């Protein structure tokens, strides 16, 4: 599911404003078979949303500071999810700039914590249905060129090619991939 999200549009409705961006980077986590997954050791109160149903958000706090948003992708109980790592901002960039406290468009959503801050996504969005109205995934680019790379920022299972990026995007979290 992770490569299928590349080129789609993530939309957040916040205070009557539409904030959106093209998904340019996403990373897959494969539940009980993936030692880097929050679900590797089973269900806890923190990761409950990751266990389903699919099409909902799993939001968690990383290092006690940043929020990260994942799309739950498997049937209930299986706990696979896709971390949304980066967006290319499209709509609502002024609001994103205000929420992030910076002007550089390239840095607004280039990383999972930045993405959540720019869209105003927090723990209260854990379990949000992506078919609802507040946060949705919409169609975006037709047939984007997607590149698979190894995941980043991990201490285990780093060698798995489960990070997917939009080829040539300057909005990815770590460097441009051609």
Polypeptide structure, described:
This protein is 13% helix and 32% strand. It has a single domain (2-166), classed as Methylpurine-DNA glycosylase (MPG) (3-methyladenine DNA Glycosylase, Chain A, Roll), CATH 3.10.300. It is globular and about 40 Å long. The protein has helices at residues 2-5, 93-100, 105-108, 112-119, and strands at residues 9-14, 17-30, 57-62, 66-72, 80-91, 135-138, 146-149, 163-166. Strands 1, 2, 3, 4, 5, 6, 7 and 8 form an eight-stranded antiparallel sheet that branches. The longest helix is centred in the middle third of the chain and has 8 residues, at 93-100. α2 (93-100) crosses α4.
Going by CATH, what is the homologous superfamily? Methylpurine-DNA glycosylase (MPG)
User: What is the CA–CA distance across the termini?
Assistant: 21 Å
Residue-averaged pLDDT: 90
Helix content: 10-25%
Reported by name, the CATH topology is: 3-methyladenine DNA Glycosylase, Chain A
Q: What's the number of domains?
A: 1
The portion of residues forming beta strands comes to 25-35%
Features:
single chain; 178 residues; alpha+beta; 3-methyladenine DNA Glycosylase, Chain A; eight-stranded antiparallel sheet
Set down the secondary structure blueprint.
Blueprint: H1 2-5, E1 9-14, E2 17-30, E3 57-62, E4 66-72, E5 80-91, H2 93-100, H3 105-108, H4 112-119, E6 135-138, E7 146-149, E8 163-166
Antiparallel strand pairs: 1-2, 1-6, 2-5, 2-8, 3-4, 4-5, 7-8
